[in-house]
What does this fold into?
Amino acid sequence: MEITVCRAADVALLDEHLGTRGATSFHARRYARQRAGQSTCLVAWLDERPVGHAEMRWIGCGAPEVRRAAPGCPELNGLAVWPEHLRSRGIGSALVRAAEELARERGLPRAGMGVARDNPRAAALYARLGYRPLTDYLDRWTYQDDDGATHEQIDPCTFLVKRLPTC
It folds into this structure.
């Protein structure tokens, strides 16, 4: 397995293999943030096929509660491994470690991520990786369906943080 920073040519492959919801590509929006310097998108590859992704958002979490509790903390967002049979094989952990390394390279003292309260499997992984609960919040995000209608999703989450070792 290899972890790389997303390239423009990877966006279509991510959409094909990891799916996207709606008319506007999830991965294209992420890549646009990366190009604007707001984030770094990571892709996990296995046999030249994308099997996971994550976005380290240098601008932090958008939720006001999290911004107050963790000002300046970058947010690891949208961590996913697909297809499901590849989960629990270290791909998610490798993506988290790669994102943490990017934060350390920037001299940042900590990293954070949200976990949905109804996702105990992910919460257990993040706890094993050293992330601890900081604050509860509602993660709000929108997507556009194939007909162009915009939908809002609201997920109850807990924001987790980890102190990063200095180099």
Notes: The chain has a mean pLDDT of 93.
